[in-house]
Design brief:
Elements (H helix, E strand, L loop, with lengths): L2 H5 L3 E7 L2 E6 L8 H9 L14 H10 L6 H16 L8 E6 L4 H14 L3 E6 L4 H12 L3 E6 L3 H9 L5 E6 L9 H14 L5 E7 L4 H7 L6 H17 L8 E8 L4 E8 L3 E5 L4 E5 L4 E8 L3 H11 L2 E7 L5 E7 L2
Parallel strand pairs: 2-5, 3-4, 3-6, 4-5, 6-7
Antiparallel strand pairs: 1-2, 7-14, 8-9, 9-12, 10-11, 13-14
Bound molecules: N,N-dimethyl-L-histidine (AVI).
The site of N,N-dimethyl-L-histidine has 11 residues, from strand 12.
């Protein structure tokens, strides 16, 4: 029995079959509920909704659609870089690595990495960490397609999952965090997150992070204002979610999607704009929200980086830089670091 099971009694192990198991914390942690968070963030002076709330079933489906609209370059660009990594990453790895993914990921990207893990290893271990149980669904197809793969899902926050992994065993981990999801953290939360990754890694472990780069403002703004209006639907969907789950009466016709690039802070800022003076009741948050015409509700930051900033940030946390890969247009980056 491994350390995690002997010492870490906080997780329950579910064995689906010999190639698929997952761990889930026994007790849900003391985190604020959706209703409480909305009450405090929409009830304050500068109104906001945390971007983690975008991803209900509908929101996750809309995000998938965003990834293939022509203006949203990050997904296809990162995939093109991952294709190069199929030959360029293996020299950094040996037989002993397992693949750990933060987020259960788009299977296209995960597969590009699993392709070379499974072709060079007798048995490949894949550990997705995701708060949503969706990872148990996407696992079946992977197991069908890769016969020498075993999957251990950790259904928890990234931080919780990384802590779990720290005491799990001595096998080396390649931890991947793709899609520039890191860009959605505030700088302070992002730094704390990287410290957590670093502190839970063992010497010799590797971390691969995908980050979007600073570029021409028009390219950035079009990516978040696509002509098909999918990003607008994605943004507005969070209000439908609040209506459904918190018993609220947002009228979506009274809001519009608004996304701009803030050059100074190097980030796309996404808002929902109130199109009228209005008042909304969010019953389960015990909130009556008053909005003026043109008032903004902040929903997301998506930070963009310069290469030197990425290297400085990772260096500050203590990581050792191994390599950065870019696409031809230098729109997106993948950086590999280690803990020594
Ligand atoms: C998930 N995340 C990296 C996306 C981004 O680009 O910041 C979310 C997104 N929001 C609007 N379009 C895509």
């Amino acid at each position: 029995m491994n350390n995690a099971l002997q010492e870490n009694k906080k997780y329950k192990k579910f064995v689906v079959d010999s190639r698929l198991q997952y761990f889930k914390p026994h007790a849900t942690k003391i985190e604020k509920t959706f209703a409480e968070e909305i009450s405090s963030t929409l009830g304050s002076n500068s109104k906001s909704i945390h971007p983690k709330f975008f991803y209900d079933n509908k929101g996750s489906e809309l995000f998938k659609q965003i990834c293939s609209v022509s203006e949203y370059y990050p997904t296809r660009t990162e995939i093109s870089i991952l294709q190069k990594l199929q030959t360029e990453l293996p020299p950094f790895l040996d037989e002993d690595f397992r693949l750990v993914e933060l987020g259960s990921g788009s299977s296209v990207k995960t597969r590009l990495i699993l392709d070379f893990f499974t072709s060079s290893q007798k048995n490949t271990e894949y550990f997705p960490i995701d708060i949503s149980e969706i990872l148990t669904e996407s696992s079946e197809e992977l197991l069908n397609d890769y016969k020498n793969l075993t999957i251990t899902g950790i259904i928890d926050t990234y931080e919780g999952g990384l802590e779990f992994l720290k005491t799990y065993d001595d096998k080396k981990n390649l931890i991947i965090f793709l899609g520039s999801s890191f860009g959605n953290f505030s700088p302070i939360d992002g730094y704390k997150f990287l410290e957590k990754v670093y502190s839970t890694m063992k010497p010799g472990d590797l971390f691969l992070i995908g980050l979007d780069l600073v570029k021409d403002k028009t390219i950035l703004e079009s990516a978040y204002n696509d002509s098909e209006g999918i990003t607008a639907k994605f943004n507005l969907n969070v209000l439908s979610r609040i209506n459904d789950e918190l018993d609220a009466d947002f009228d979506l016709k009274n809001f519009s999607h608004y996304a701009i690039y803030n050059e100074k802070d190097q980030r796309i800022e996404m808002y929902l704009k109130s199109l009228a003076d209005q008042s909304i009741v969010v019953s389960k948050s015990d909130l009556e929200l008053k909005l003026q015409k043109d008032e903004l509700i902040h929903t997301e930051y998506s930070h963009k980086y310069r290469l030197s900033q990425i290297h400085d940030l990772l260096d500050d946390v203590g990581f050792e830089l191994k390599h950065t890969w870019l696409d031809d247009k230098k729109h997106f980056s993948l950086t590999l670091v280690s803990k020594n």
